[in-house]
């Protein structure tokens, strides 16, 4: 497997140095994902901005977590599932939600389940979602804006999940206690 460089503020390309400083200020460390992405400043900048945009979407903390973890689990991201487990804890998301997402078991309410179902359909069908699936999502109380925001969240996760698959990014120490493996 190709070894990817884990950059810091001293080894990163010039375009990534301020982005890594931003990461360090936000998280108190440079997450491994950001350290890998720093090799391509445009990717790191796009990831950070997409994260900010999705985090400030109309979704609440539980809904953000549902979209993030649904994609992470579906894509079997060894790095993002534990990282977003820790992030969900920091956001105050109930462990019942987090565990249901990690374990692919039912969520505690129909709205969150509808969001997971729609997100999975979007991912699995590569955006070619049937009108029936769209109508089911809208019928569960979501909006056209929410449909587009799921695409935004998915876009963020494609950048991180695929980077982590290729780089085999080591899970950061604070998230190692939330290690995860896809069930058979």
Provide a compact summary of the structure:
This protein is mostly helical.
Layout of helices and strands:
Blueprint: H1 17-27, H2 32-37, H3 41-55, H4 61-74, H5 80-91, H6 95-103, H7 110-124, H8 131-139, H9 144-167
Helix pairs in contact: 3-9, 4-5, 4-6, 4-7, 4-9, 7-8, 7-9
Please characterize this protein's 3D structure.
With 184 residues, this protein is an all-alpha fold. It has a domain at 60-178: AhpD-like (Up-down Bundle). The chain is 62% helix and 0% strand. It contains 9 helices and no strands. The chain has helices at residues 17-27, 32-37, 41-55, 61-74, 80-91, 95-103, 110-124, 131-139, 144-167. Helix 3 (41-55) runs antiparallel to helix 9 (144-167) and helix 4 (61-74) crosses helix 9 (144-167). The chain starts with 16 loop residues before the first helix and ends in a 17-residue tail after the last helix.
Could you describe the largest sheet, including whether it forms a barrel?
none
CATH topology assignment of one domain: AhpD-like
Average pLDDT works out at 97
Spans of at least 5 consecutive residues whose pLDDT stays below 50 are none
**Cα end-to-end separation:** 24 Å
Number of alpha- plus pi-helical segments: 9
Oligomerization state: single chain
The ordered string of helix (H) and strand (E) elements is HHHHHHHHH
Q: Tell me roughly what share of residues is in helical segments.
A: 55-70%
State Rg.
Answer: 16 Å
Which term fits the overall shape? globular
What structural category arises from helix and sheet content?
A: mainly alpha
Strand content: under 5%
- Look at the structure and name the CATH superfamily of one domain: AhpD-like
CATH architecture of one domain: Up-down Bundle
CATH hierarchy class name of one domain: Mainly Alpha
User: Got a strand count?
Assistant: 0
């Amino acid at each position: 497997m190709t070894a990817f460089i884990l950059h810091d503020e001293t080894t990163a390309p010039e375009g990534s140095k301020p982005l890594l400083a931003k990461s360090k200020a936000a998280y108190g460390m440079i997450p491994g994902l950001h350290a890998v992405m720093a090799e391509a400043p445009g990717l790191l900048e796009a990831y950070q901005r997409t994260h900010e945009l999705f985090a400030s979407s109309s979704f609440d903390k539980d809904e953000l977590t549902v979209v993030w973890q649904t994609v992470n689990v579906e894509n079997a991201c060894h790095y993002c599932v534990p990282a977003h487990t820790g992030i969900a804890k920091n956001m105050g998301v109930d462990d019942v939600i987090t565990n249901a997402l990690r374990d692919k078991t039912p969520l505690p309410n129909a709205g969150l389940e509808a969001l997971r179902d729609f997100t999975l359909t979007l991912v699995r069908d590569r955006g070619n979602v049937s009108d029936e699936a769209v109508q089911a999502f809208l019928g569960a109380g979501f909006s056209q804006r929410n449909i587009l925001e799921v695409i935004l969240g998915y876009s963020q996760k494609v950048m991180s999940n695929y980077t982590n698959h290729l780089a085999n990014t080591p899970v950061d120490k604070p998230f190692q206690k939330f290690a995860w493996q896809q069930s058979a």
